[in-house]
Fold this protein.
Amino acid sequence: MTINPALSTLVPLVGSWRMELYNAAFLPGPDARVSGTAEIDWIEAGTALRIRQNDTEHPPFAISIVGRDEAGADYSVLYADDRGVSRIYRMRFEHGHWQMWRDTPEFSQRFDARVDADGSAIRGRWEKSTDGG
C-alpha cells in the first residue's frame, strides 16, 4: 500500500489501542473509569486515516476520518458519533506530539497527547471550555 505522502507522519498512530477514560463530563459520575478501544487504520489504500472508537456506551461509538491539504501543516478531522454529534477538528502531529482542537462560540475543545518513545502507549487528555475560549 502506498500511503498518501501528506499523511505519512501519522504512521506511529496506526494500530489497535486500549483506552482508559476518567474525569470526563460525559461519563456517568466523577469517579467513573471506563475502558474502551480505538482502532486506527488506513482507508482507501492509504489516502486517509480512520479512527474507530469503542463499541460500548461510554465513550460513545465514534468514527473520525483524518486528511490533509498537502499545502498546509495541519490536518482536518471529520468526527461523528452514535449520539448524532458531528464535528470538524484541526489536528497536528509532530515528533510524537498529537494535538486536536476545535473552537466554536458554544464551547472549545482540545486534545493534547504524546506517543511514548517506544510506541507502546499514547498518553493524553481532552479539555473543554464553555466560557468562549
